[in-house]
Specification:
With about 375 residues, the protein is α/β, with parallel strands linked by helices. Among the domains are: about 200 residues, Rossmann fold (3-Layer(aba) Sandwich); about 70 residues, Arc Repressor Mutant, subunit A. The chain is about 55% helix and about 10% strand. It has a 5-stranded parallel β-sheet, sandwiched between helices. The protein has a two-stranded antiparallel sheet with strand order 6-7. Strand 6 and strand 7 form a beta hairpin. Helix 6 runs antiparallel to helix 7, helix 13 runs parallel beside helix 15 and helix 15 packs across helix 18. The protein starts with about 25 loop residues before the first helix and ends in a 6-residue tail after the last helix. Bound molecules: adenosine-5'-diphosphate (ADP) and magnesium ion (MG). Magnesium ion binds next to helix 2.
C-alpha cells in the first residue's frame, strides 16, 4: 500500500491537539491536581518545549472534571484594551457564546441596558462590562478585568482555572500588572486558581520567589519534564503506521536521538521524514532518510534558531558558551579573565533557563542537539 496523505498529521507550532501530547502524563496529573486543589502554579520553560500543549491537556482534564477554564496568551495581547476584551469574552463565553459581545458593548455603552437580548446574554457581566468599557484609567480597567473570573465562578457555582500563557509579557500591558493582580491571584475564597506559563525562567522565578515582588510566594513552581525516548518511539511508530509508512524502532530511536527528544524538533524531523517518504511514495524508511529529514528540519527551523541566537547575542558569555558547546570545544580554553567571568555568568543563566544541561562534572551539552547542529554548521561563529 502506498503512503496516505493526512493533513496536520505531525502538528507543529502552538499547542498540539490533546491526542498528540506525547508523554508527560505524570506532570499533567500533578498540575491538574494542584489546580483543582486551588493552588496557583508556575511552569517556566523555553519556547517550543511544550508548555502550552501540556496546559491544553490539563485544561481538557479539568473541564472533564467539571471545572471551568480560561486561557489567555499574553504574546497575542498587545494592549490593555485587547487584554480586557479577550478576558471578558473568555469569561462570558462560559455562560453564553460570546463572539462579538465585547465590541457591541463598547459601541452601545449604557444604551446596552435597553437591549433585552444583550442583557439576557450578559447577565451579571452587563454591569461589569459597562464599567470595564468606561473605565477612567488603565489601572481601573486592569482591576476590573482581574475580577471577571471570580464573577463567572460565582455565577456558575464552579471552580475556575485561569491559564496566563507567556506571562512574562504581562508587564508590557501595564507596568503595575503584577501589583494590581496580586489580590486576585492570592485570594483564597474566590474559587479561582491560576496556571502561569512563561518562557523566561529566570525572570519568572524572580517574580514569584523574590520577597520584594508583588507575587512573592503566590504560586508553586513545577518543572516541565523531558519526554521519554520510548514514549516518542511508540507515538511515532503508531503515527507512521496510520499513514501506511513503516519505520522500524531502530530508525525511530535514531531520529529521536538526533533531535534530543526535544518536543518541537522531534516533531519537525518526523514531519520531514513523512514528507520525504510520501513524496517519493515509499512505504518503508531507510537510514539515509533520517539524515535527510534532519537536514530538511534544520532548514525549517532556521528562523527560530536565528532568533534564539540573536537573543543569546545580547550577552557575550552566552554566545561563547553556546558556540563552544555546539562545536565540542573546551569551554575555558584560551579565555581572558573577563571572558571567564562572563562564561560563568552565562552558564548559570543558561542552565537555569533550560538551554543547557549538565551531564557530569564539568561536562555540559545544549538541550537542543539541532541547535548545536545549526550553530556549528550554518553560523559562521568563532567560538
Ligand atoms: N507533549 C508533546 N508531544 C508532542 N509534541 C509536542 C509536545 N509538546 C510540544 N510539542 C511540539 O512542540 C510544538 C510547540 O509546543 P508548544 O506547546 O506550543 O510549546 P511552548 O508553549 O512551550 O512554546 C508543538 O506544536 C509540537 O510540535
Ligand atoms: Mg506556548
Amino acid at each position: 500500500m502506498a503512503p496516505i496523505f493526512k493533513p496536520r498529521h505531525f502538528p507543529i507550532g502552538g499547542a498540539v491537539p490533546t491526542a498528540d501530547v506525547v508523554g508527560r502524563s505524570g506532570a499533567i496529573v500533578d498540575l491538574a491536581f494542584k489546580l483543582r486543589s486551588g493552588q496557583n502554579v508556575l511552569m517556566a520553560a523555553p519556547r517550543r518545549t511544550g508548555k502550552s500543549s501540556v496546559a491544553a491537556k490539563v485544561m481538557e482534564e479539568l473541564e472533564e472534571a467539571g471545572l471551568l477554564t480560561v486561557h489567555l496568551d499574553f504574546l497575542k495581547l498587545t494592549t490593555l484594551d485587547s487584554f480586557a476584551g479577550a478576558y471578558f469574552e473568555a469569561c462570558v463565553s462560559k455562560r453564553t457564546a460570546a463572539v462579538g459581545l465585547w465590541s457591541r458593548l463598547k459601541v452601545e455603552k449604557n444604551k446596552a441596558r435597553a437591549e433585552a437580548n444583550l442583557v439576557f446574554r450578559l447577565g451579571p457581566f452587563l454591569e461589569a462590562g459597562l464599567k470595564l468599557t468606561s473605565s477612567a484609567t488603565p489601572e481601573e480597567m486592569l482591576t476590573l478585568a482581574m475580577g471577571l473570573p471570580a464573577l463567572v465562578a460565582h455565577e456558575q457555582k464552579k471552580d475556575l482555572v485561569v491559564v496566563f500563557d507567556e506571562f512574562q509579557d504581562s508587564t508590557k500591558l501595564h507596568r503595575e500588572f503584577l501589583r494590581v493582580a496580586r489580590p486576585y491571584v492570592t485570594a483564597t475564597d474566590d474559587r479561582v486558581s491560576y496556571l502561569f506559563l512563561g518562557s523566561q525562567s529566570t525572570l519568572l522565578h524572580q517574580v514569584f520567589n523574590k520577597q520584594s515582588e508583588p507575587l512573592f510566594r503566590s504560586a508553586l513552581s513545577v518543572d516541565l519534564p523531558a519526554i521519554g525516548d520510548e514514549e516518542w518511539i511508540d507515538y511515532l511508530r503508531a503515527k507512521f503506521e496510520e499513514v501506511a509508512i513503516s519505520v522500524d524502532r531502530r530508525l525511530l530511536a535514531q531520529l529521536v536521538r538526533r533531535a534530543g527528544g526535544h518536543p518541537q524538533d522531534t516533531m519537525t524531523v518526523a514531519f520531514c521524514l513523512y514528507q520525504v517518504l510520501y513524496q517519493e511514495q515509499r512505504e518503508t524508511a531507510r537510514e539515509t532518510d533520517v539524515a535527510r529529514a534532519v537536514d530538511e528540519a534544520l532548514g525549517l527551523m532556521a528562523a527560530a534558531f536565528e532568533q534564539l541566537w540573536l537573543d543569546f547575542n545580547s550577552e557575550r558569555g552566552n554566545r561563547i558558551v553556546i558556540a563552544r558547546l555546539a562545536r565540542g570545544v573546551p569551554l575555558y580554553g584560551g579565555v581572558t579573565n573577563s571572558e571567564r567571568a562572563a562564561i560563568d555568568r552565562a552558564m548559570k543563566r543558561l542552565l537555569a533557563d533550560g538551554f543547557i544541561q549538565k551531564l557530569g562534572r564539568g561536562s555540559y551539552r545544549l538541550t537542543e542537539p539541532l541547535l548545536a547542529d545549526y550553530v556549528s554548521d550554518y553560523l559562521d561563529v568563532r567560538p
